[in-house]
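We emphasize that the prediction below concerns an isolated chain of 375 residues; any contacts that depend on oligomerization or on bound cofactors are therefore not represented. The input was used exactly as deposited, without trimming of termini.
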Amino acid sequence: MTATISPLELASLVDQPGNAPFVLDVRAPDQFERWKIDGKAHPDGVNVPYWNALGDEEATKAVIPRDQEVVVVCAHGGSSAMVVDTFGLPNLRNLAGGMDAWAVTLIPHVLSDDGSHLVVQFDRIAKACLSYAVGARGDAMAVIDPAAEIDAYLEMARELDARITDVFDTHLHADHISKARALCGATGATYHIAPGDAEGATFEYQPLRDGERFVIGDMEIVVRSVATPGHTPGSTSLEVDGRYLMTGDAVFVTGIGRPDLGGETEPWARDLFRTIHDRLAPLDGELEVCPAHYTDRSEAGDDGTIRRRLADLLANDPVVSMTDEDAFVRHVVDHLGTPPGVYQEIRRVNMGWLAVDGDQAKVLEVGRNECALSG
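Result of the prediction step, given as a token string:
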């Protein structure tokens, strides 16, 4: 029987310096270059297409360690299993489900749990996407920016004995297909998104307005929405329990979201500057910024979570702390990079204008997000 490792187990190991496995990726080189296994420990690895690995077994064995665990990876898990079985080395394990499974793996990290109420950050490690569950045991649960698959959120609701009542998208996502509508369809929850992002959408939603308050469970845990335009016109942050600020792609723990995905770079960059200085700066500096994306797992704390005090971000981030609006806009324009062409197609899917099946969705979502400024 082929020795395997689950995506969740691998996700834990790649965050552990000194304990991360070596990765033998047997996909085609172009697939490998688009995205690969990574984590806080930045595991070592090599790309040897499976036809080369099997065609010259000894040469491949020569480039992988014998005194370290080796995880073999392919697109779906079949070719990598063949390599593991053929090589017969005791330190080789096959990634179950391959990159298909890795792509939709969500790793839960608890932000807070007082015994009654729970706030959890879900890390979609393959795309560096973050989503959130805010739940009251035995009562209700809200989900913010759901991605990948809905099963993880449904399972958390079962664990809490809670009903998912509200689902929020902080903005119209461009790098991945939102699972908000699918989750609402499965649970009967209300879908909230700002009309500035969803105007013209083909689906029903509850318009998310600046200053709205929401009650989850027996306390006002999602207390306030804050309009934070710039990345998109309708970008909205959610202040949770007076402790967390789910900022979507407005600001990250390092840097800001790119404002060019709608074709209005300079006006949206100016909106983003005003968001930072007029909307975020007056808030409680002790709020912890919890974004919808990150750039690298090195941004994670010792507990695995991605978060940063708002006051620290405003004062010390090289971009967020810029006080000259024109200099800020020039910096944004100079550091945009080229957005992936599929992002406009993903936006159309998230507006309900384009229907895609599961295989088409996988193709659109290949690779990590590129919603931040490049450098």
